[in-house]
Design brief:
The chain is mostly beta strands. It has one domain: Virus Head Decoration Protein, Chain: A (Beta Barrel). Strands 1, 2, 3, 4, 5, 6, 7, 8 and 9 form a 9-stranded antiparallel β-sheet that branches. The protein is globular, with a radius of gyration of 14 Å.
Length: about 130
């Protein structure tokens, strides 16, 4: 339910990435992705339910990244209201966007359900920037 991947693309990665995690392009090689670790990272999408394991890394496998649509994403904190604009925390999980005055954060999208920390929730991916 709530999952509608309109565009998923396969990338390589040299690191383990948990399922339902926001990712960014690797600046050393744009065919690779890394977990996003900051609200200012230029996030491109979210790993699917498989993520990317140590075995995948050693085999040189691909990781599927949802780029457009509704994706399941892990919540890094409680999100009370559906429709909340979200950014990511240091673990690549969504948190409510609340930038300080004059600061910019990258938005991953908007939530479609409320969440407790650790829940996996649907997020309508809509990459943009919010300034506080």
């Amino acid at each position: 339910m709530f999952q509608n991947h309109l565009l998923t693309k396969s990338y390589y990665s040299s690191v383990v990435i948990a399922p339902y995690t926001a990712v960014k392009l690797d600046p050393a090689n744009n065919e690779y992705v890394l977990p996003a670790t900051s609200a200012t990272d230029l996030v491109i999408g979210v790993t699917n339910e498989l993520g990317f394991t140590a075995t995948d890394v050693s085999r040189g496998s691909n990781v599927d990244v949802v780029l457009v649509g509704i994706a399941q994403v892990a919540a890094g904190s409680a999100i009370a209201t559906p429709g909340t604009r979200v950014t990511i925390n240091a673990s690549g999980q969504v948190i409510a966007a609340a930038p300080a005055a004059g600061a910019n954060v990258q938005l991953l999208g908007v939530t479609l359900l409320p969440a407790s920390s650790g829940d996996v929730i649907p997020v309508l991916l809509h990459l943009s920037v919010m300034q506080g």
